[in-house]
């Protein structure tokens, strides 16, 4: 056993053999040829002695041709740290966020150096592979700071760069910041690499071939070195504030969340019941609809991993699905959770088929752990993780059913295949390599590919930028995005963010016309539960406030009516339903339940009794606001004027300060006109960008460019426009009655006008 351990250590030492410089400082060097070693470099402890210096060094290498002495490279960790305070200048810019400044001193960083805005130095399949490694480690170690880095000669502020990164982020769900630089910092010849460093340890660089086991062990080693330092996890000023979300979403594409579909990733059908199952991947839900586009149901409420009924279950980027007619169940790929889920459509319950929990869910220990997990997430450095299995189900995307009943599960690039027994939910075999996979299931893959061959070439050509592939089966990454339904071929369009219908008889192609949108409810990304109202989070900053107003009122009942004016160039697709309205009170105001709102008491209530009544109301009411539209606020037959939306609610106000938060989701679409000129199309794209991005978190011009390159019908785009209104009340003490003992409650009506820009 001891000898085996020594041999393994010698192999590891050989893989980590450094290319040591002759000088005092050792900086990262890559020769400007087609050579790219497995291990690009190792920084000795002496490299931290003078981190601010640029160094010209020679490298001990097995290459016959010497490295030019004039080659000057920059210390990558220092360069990254120097850009944080100045996120944008002529030589560099940060996209998709900025690293946490507080963790720069003691944090552990993993830098992926690759071609994010071009694929010239690395094939698409290899890029997806290295990206999956980084994303997995990001999920496994929440304290790990992930950074992407690319040296490029393209103008940094080019709209082409941002448009390309938009598409890549949509497809790959890149949630970490990316640093672009036009300096001669580093040139990658043929492969990507990983650079790992921290505030107190020397950086280490690994080549693309470094597998996740090596990277996982490196992170543990860095963590062990940091064990005596203060904990580097997420710190809050208050101990009770919990993290608003344990799932990082790309900040670059925040505005696109307000599209009805946000990267449709897969589709399957049940022809006998006229049902379609559409994976709205980046909205973390599966939409059930009929052949006419009417939405029937929705599976999933928000990003996460929870089983339960459809309204409370959580998914993370669902992709391919398979309908099992005998069971009336939908099997679906839960990509970012590395899981296979099973949706019982009759009972409307979602469960996890794989992986199965090893913990007994009936035990009190499991229940207590579940409660603690709901209250806050463990973020201490001593958290224990299971041993890493490199053959485990990681980032599955496609799924087919084999003739013998097995589930064939592929990753996005089709370089990994997991063969799962459907009855037991166990993985029987793992196959690596596209050529080896074709030997097993080439007929099934070709059957899907033949459907794509019937699609017009101009549409497929548009997908080429987003789905470049060097495999002998073109567009294999799209095989989960196409399905037959009657005499039509249904296609998920991940570029245009829509679903298309191709009629095989007439050869015509058209967009799906969705209806019954209210069944989707209020979007999770626009809501603000009470713990989110007080907590600070980057994602919350994207929810801009449309209207903020303060009132001085006497205590009592307050009837509120919001009159929302929508822009004249858009149409409201469907009337606003209660399922798309979200209300909440804070401070000295409480909601009125439906039963209480039907009658108004004129009795004078003592202060003490009112205080106890409010405590009882808070103790036995649900967290969600139960206020409903007042039936008596409008006369019968009165019609809401065109271009206006009305929202009503009622609250009880008490002495002190309070706030009423009212949010709604309006489904809008541009009005159609006959002007098809280029100027008109640009104007329409600009209007959509304004509706999608009221907070201007990202350049309006980039969104316009992205919409124009999709070449889709801009007037057919459905926009989920969130409305966010906050009303603040300041109420004095209750007026006293003539006997100076009782108090008087005052009824107030408020009409608030809100204009959407």
UniProtKB/TrEMBL annotation:
<dbReference type="GO" id="GO:0000209">
    <property type="term" value="P:protein polyubiquitination"/>
</dbReference>
<dbReference type="Pfam" id="PF01436">
    <property type="entry name" value="NHL"/>
</dbReference>
<dbReference type="InterPro" id="IPR001258">
    <property type="entry name" value="NHL_repeat"/>
</dbReference>
<dbReference type="GO" id="GO:0043161">
    <property type="term" value="P:proteasome-mediated ubiquitin-dependent protein catabolic process"/>
</dbReference>
<protein>
    <recommendedName>
        <fullName>NHL repeat-containing protein 2</fullName>
    </recommendedName>
</protein>
<dbReference type="GO" id="GO:0061630">
    <property type="term" value="F:ubiquitin protein ligase activity"/>
</dbReference>
<dbReference type="InterPro" id="IPR011042">
    <property type="entry name" value="6-blade_b-propeller_TolB-like"/>
</dbReference>
<keyword id="KW-0677">Repeat</keyword>
